[in-house]
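Hi R.,

Here's the chain you asked about this morning:
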Amino acid sequence: MIQSFNPPNLSDLQKRSLIVGIVFLVGLIASAFFKPRQFFQSYLIGWTFCTGISVGSLALLMLQHLTGGGWGLVIRRVLEAATRLLPIMALLFLPVILGSHSIYHEWLDHEEVAQHPAVQFKAGYLNLPFFTVRAVVYFAVWITLAFLLNKWSLAQDRTADNRYTKWMRVLSGPGMVALIFSVSFASIDWYMSLEPEWFSTIYGFIFVAAWALSALAFVIAVMADLSADEPMKRIVAPLHFQDLGKLLLALVMLWAYFAFSQFLIIWSGNLPEEIVWYTHRIYAAWGVLIVLIGILHFAAPFLFLLSRNLKRNPRKLVLVALLIIVMRAVDLLWMLAPAFGHGRWVLVDVVALLGFAGLWFALFTWQLGKRPLIPINDPQFESTVEQMHAGH
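And the predicted structure, written out as tokens:
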């Protein structure tokens, strides 16, 4: 029975993704010979986009263990495959450490620090050894959670022992709390510290929502493709896509709430040390970009996802998901590139995003092919099959 849910042959897709990734990453590496500082800065942007999908998938994996339901069962293997890439993303973080003086020069360059008393005050926190230790802790938390959830899920498949279901649910409660805290502090360390004089108490939550949103949009895109063919065609129902669409709508609103709340509080306060973050991002090309983000990242998906029929139709829902994935990359550029002094879109940033996306997706398809697409011995399997018949 388990064999009937083996994944389709993804080798051609994997090869094409790998070629795209290698071509663009070679282009990114070539840029290092001309502008080494630009290389490391763009590297961080590309790495962040893909790491966000893996960490966001871990959040969704724990959420579905806590809540149950057929929607979580059908996407579990996709989420698990994405989380198994976290050790690779941890290794790929090493160039960020090695190039830290190019990325975080505002708090690592002693001459610049001497000119800014506010940065000197944060020197106990913003220093490379402590920065590295904290990064190790964040990855240790994420990789441990992913390892245990994947291990117990596989054991459940092999033994049909329901105790593994309980273990995964019990771990997911405190695991979700640990993930929210670790993502919040990681975003402060890796991104907010790019402009060390600036601060925002809601900044970490923006990344928590954004990474979960990126992951869910990616999962919907993958499921729309898989559900068109065997074996997933037999178990994924319109009702499952409707549930995923509802969650996508909730995360779109949550991300928009955090992002707009930060803007409203800082803009109304109008304090020089806070408002400067937005003044760097609302003029010239960046000003045009924030209008597009407001329309295409929030308003359009929000209106589309209000439709019940659209949420139940995977061919239509996938278009909204793909739009969100693209706009997540655009929003990431808008948040990070101005911190590096990029006054406009920089080609190397886009090359880094495409290179990392190609490599990450090739690795994802490799991991997805390692296990059956449905955890068939899960206690919710029978009810999910019933949902399929009810959904049709």
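The longest helix spans residues 36-67.

Let me know if you need anything else.
M.
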